[in-house]
Design brief:
Elements: H1 6-39, H2 46-73, H3 79-108, H4 113-138, H5 157-163
Amino acid sequence: MALQSPSQTDSDELNKLKRKRGCLRGAVTKQITKIESDILKPDITVEDLEESIELLTERGEELKLIDSQIESLIQVDQIEVEFESIEEYKEKITRTRFKTRKLIQKISKGSNANNSWQDSNISLNSSSQNETQTKEKERIKLPKLTIPKFYGEISEWLNFLECI
């Protein structure tokens, strides 16, 4: 068996880490999708939400570790692309955790998650209805104007021109 050069070993390690990260990102995306669907359920419990946040946090930490290992192995010209990709997943995780924690706070205060969710949707719908009603009130009815047609008679041209 031939010995591999250090750059070949780094390349193999980088490929291995990228594959592992791909699997982990898939798991993060599935967890986020699960949380988003759970939020819409009327009978969701605080325990379920906390469990989902915990799983998402763990996967986020694993992803952060793998990303830092990949950053140490990638070439300088690839850093920008990797950084954007890493930031995109960090943002997804942070947003989902924030939304879920806010919902947990609402549930903990005694309000039903579904009702609070529906209340926010109702307030959004009513505000859009108010905008529509305001726009309708601003409309003014104007009289219908009839413009005579010009049929090409030269003798009628001046009468037609005066009507316009």
